[in-house]
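INFO batch 0412 | record 1 of 1 | parsing
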Amino acid sequence: MAAVAGGALRAAAAAAGGPRRRRRMRRRRKGKAVRARCGPCARSRRGLPDPADTRSPRRDDLLSSGFWAASAGECGERGVGTLGTASPGGAAALTPPPAGAVRAPLSGPAEPPARCVCYGLGRFGRCPAARYQLAFLLLLLDELRVPLARCALFDPAFSAREAAVLRALGLCLLPENEEGKHGIEGSATLFYMVHCGKALYNNLLWSNWSPAALSKLVIIGNSFRGIEERLLSRILERDYSYIAKVLKGVEEVALPSHPRYLDTFNDTSVHWFPLDKLQELSPEVWDCVEEPMYQDCEDLEIIRKGEGPTV
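INFO prediction complete | emitting tokens
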């Protein structure tokens, strides 16, 4: 009864205040609603991460687990404490490469990358694995001293809000779907392509099909060795001929395995192409430069230019 009476009194008071009072109350309620929709909590409810969220919790997880330290070679060179403190359980779970996969391409005379291109990051507003991949990319750019403004991304699945988050982080967006056909034009470039389709890697190789250009590429993506092992040789040579032809000219180091990131970075390796190995390949390897068409490919695994993403 008291609650009913209280409600009646409030209604009577509002009515007594007249239209002007009711308009003021509606404006106050509307202002609160707008602030709620625009705050960090609302951004999380919509599935869109706050820009700081991709830098902080996921970044901290990658550091504290020891995964980043093992990937970058921190364990053996500068110590884990430089970038984060690995827990004993996290460090013991790793199987790190000797020098760190991220630094392996720079152990020789290779030119360090001056820019980065990222394909296929995915819907990081919805997918936790994609958010970890984005956090790893940001750590990678910092480690290799590639300015954020010199990193361009494309995924046809990006929403307008996700694109806005990437711009807020200081990253750039490629204006159109290149299908991986990105020529480096003489600039040493890192390509970050975790879990992309085989055709994207094949197109990228075709676009830079010369020893001089390939020697300036570093690709972080699906293991070329794994692709070779899983595909029949006739299909690899027919559909992905540039991957097939470069297998003897590529060096590859897998990212460390970690139980927390099995679905996030599984089958991911760092690839680079030493100039001396490329020059040892048969001259005929470089003669055929036909653009890949994939007419007989049953499962292309990429979104073609002009197509939209499947929901």
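INFO post-check: The longest strand covers residues 217-222.
INFO record closed
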